[in-house]
User: What shape does this take?
Amino acid sequence: MVDTKKKILVADDNPAILDALKIMLEEEGYVVETTVDGVTVQDIKEPLPDLLLLDIWMSGIDGRNVCKLLKSGPATKHIPVIMISATKDIEQIAKDSGADDCISKPFQMEYLLAIVAKYVNKH
Amino acid sequence: MKGKHPKTALTPATDNLQKAINVKADMDITPLAFQKNSPAQSDESSHTPRQEKIIKLKEAVELTQEYTNEIISELDVTNEELTITRDYADAIIRTVRGPLLVLNKDLRIISANEAFYNAFKVAPNDTENRLLYDLGNRQWNIPKLRILLEEILPEKNTIEDFVVEHDFKDIGQKTMLLNARTLRQGPDKTSLILLAIEDITERQQLEQQKDEFVSIASHELKTPITSVKAYTQILGQRFRKAKDMKSVELIEKMDSQLDKLTDLIGDLLDVTKIEAGRIQFHESHFDFNDLVEETVEELQRTTEKHQIKQELQPSRMVYGDRDRLGQVLINFLTNAIKYSPHANKIIVSTLVDKDNVTLRVQDFGVGLSLEDQAKVFDRFYRVGGSDQATYPGLGLGLYIASDIIKRHKGRVWVESLKAKGSTFCFSLPMTK
Ligand SMILES: Nc1ncnc2c1ncn2[C@@H]1O[C@H](COP(=O)(O)OP(=O)(O)O)[C@@H](O)[C@H]1O
Ligand SMILES: [Mg+2]
Assistant: This one.
């Protein structure tokens, strides 16, 4: 049963946001892994997540570069990346970094869950 | 002299001189005849007509002399006035705090003020009577400036707020704001050029710092709101599952207050973006009435007192940024609700013709005086007075709204009667 659950990796440098996202997604039945350290996202290993929720400004790590890196790696480029940020220009940034979609902070829970479901099921 | 300056107003002295000349012209003699044989000198006692003419002529000459003297002294006065005027102009040039150059039409420097010498670290000796482009290692030989001074200025006579970025020899990379004006002076109408140079490098840097600050601040403020809002919604979900609808209601109120806070932060950020001209639009074709209906429905949920009525003409596809145009509509509607606390109706209507689609939001509230109507779209403007000032707000909504509409090449305006209500409108051109 655990195997059939979709795995989501959330990277954000704000612990409270990570905590809330974890609760939200777990209540929806996802397996959630979180990290405050953007560097660990760059070299994720098997088992790879089914989706990545990625903050843009992460205390020293630029989410844009992380995204570009993942999207150019043969093993990781299929992972849907959804950028999530309080930056107003997020749409442009997401497009430029090759992310699949974006969500601006603060977000509406239903909206976030809908987007996550859309990409997780595609995959 | 007369022929040269037909329009010169006659001073009393020139007037008199003219009269004296007229006296001479009246006399029927030829100067040549008078010089060659002059019988008048052989007969002194009796005045022949010729002698009388000579006497008259003498008088005329004396008169002329007298008036000429008068004119000379008048000219002295004029000269003095000229000196005063020049001193006055000089004083202005020297007093102005920003660098100022006076050039002749060949762009040779006639004078410069202290501020110029200080700002560009140059001396009067190396400046006056030199060609502008030859100054300080030809640091003013800037292609853009040449076009400006040689092509645009002669035609338009003024240059306003032209920005030049340039690496100057002694003072480094600077951003300068140029204003220039051609003056036509004196009887031969030689032109002078006044060139004001303002160093806006620092101001620009400050602007940029402010922009960056506001965008960082808004990001920082939104971060805790994000987690509070997320926790709030998790709680809402749990109460909903537990069928505790009273708590759900409270949670929804919290949530909508958080949205208000987010909007305020968004407005502050928008203002700095508008100032920097950096609002980005994501344009597409969309159904106009859909947007109106959606927005009205959303706003209807925020008020129990007001019934928002829709009187919409058949819809049109509009090209523009749907979210931003929605933001304008939200602003008109929240204002209509806010500024009509004792009314119970708001009317939203559309008007469609072949060139434009017009949207009107009419309320029956406090209204606006003519004077305020002209200013409500200004940044930070809020109507003053004891009653109006009691309404909450930052005075940014309409400023942002008008910028959004203008950037869509549309028009925004208000029709209002004090104490009767206001109708805020915008129209968008139908393109493509
Ligand atoms: N519907 C209206 N009726 C009367 N006054 C209005 C209306 N809408 C705006 N105003 C006036 O215009 C000012 C500017 O409006 P806005 O830019 O939306 O800022 P605010 O945040 O103060 O509402 C308001 O402070 C108010 O005085
Ligand atoms: Mg307002």
